[in-house]
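Re: that backbone. Tokens:
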């Protein structure tokens, strides 16, 4: 279930542009109605046309969408719970 459904709003299915953000999460607009953008526990970068990282959690850059890594010479999205492992490469 989408986090915004408990507040009476559907989860976004086609529009993932953030128009507002509050303590509950990030919001967009579909069909002239607010909708919640679901990022947690899913591959958020697939909605932007990029796979999620499978073998790396090294953050190359970060933007409003999330943290980005590189695998096979392509950008990939880093899911936050995947990057919770301590890095031993330092």
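Recovered sequence:
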């Amino acid at each position: 279930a989408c986090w915004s459904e408990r507040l009476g709003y559907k989860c976004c299915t086609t529009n993932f542009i953030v128009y507002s953000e509050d303590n509950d999460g990030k919001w967009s607009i579909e069909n002239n109605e607010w909708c919640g953008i679901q990022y947690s526990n899913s591959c958020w970068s697939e909605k932007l046309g990029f796979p999620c990282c499978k073998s790396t959690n090294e953050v190359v850059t970060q933007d409003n969408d999330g943290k980005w890594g590189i695998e096979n010479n392509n950008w990939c999205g880093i899911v936050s719970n995947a990057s919770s492992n301590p890095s031993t490469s330092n």
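The first strand starts at residue 20 and ends at 21. The chain has no helices and six strands.
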